[in-house]
Amino acid sequence: MAQVYRGGQPYPAGHPGRLTPHEVRTRKFAARQRGVDPDQVREFQARVAEELAMLNETVRLLSQENDRIKRALRDWQTMHARECRPPNSGHW
């Protein structure tokens, strides 16, 4: 599947629906006769955008930690495989 572009940034295949904090902050709504208070909408957008930014940063940090742990496990497995003798290779 090809990458989908949203807000000028490519998203990996399978994740085209993710919102960005910028999209939340800059979203415009059509005016209605009995609409909502635009100041309240902007305040809510700012709160949601900040939370999205925080969550995106948390996901980024967790992904880095996950990669670090995977590398450490691979290194340990490689070291352990070198140090262990294969089964049935020694004397009884």
Describe this protein's structure.
- The chain starts with a strand and ends in a 9-residue tail after the last helix.
- It has 2 helices and 2 strands.
- By secondary structure, the chain is mainly α.
- Mean pLDDT is 81; it is low at 1-5.
- 0% of the residues are buried.
- Helix content is 57%, strand content 7%.
- It has helices at residues 21-26, 38-83, and strands at 4-6, 9-11.
- The chain has a two-stranded antiparallel ribbon with strand order 1-2.
Rg, Cα atoms, Å: 25 Å
Mean pLDDT: 81
Q: How would you write the strand order of the largest sheet?
A: 1-2
- Net shape: rod-shaped
Number of helices: 2
Order of helices and strands: EEHH
Q: Note poorly predicted spans.
A: 1-5
Kindly report how far apart the N and C termini lie.
56 Å
Q: What characterizes the major β-sheet?
A: 2 strands, antiparallel
Helix content: 55-70%
Q: Which percent range describes the beta-strand content?
A: 5-15%
| SS-based class | mainly alpha
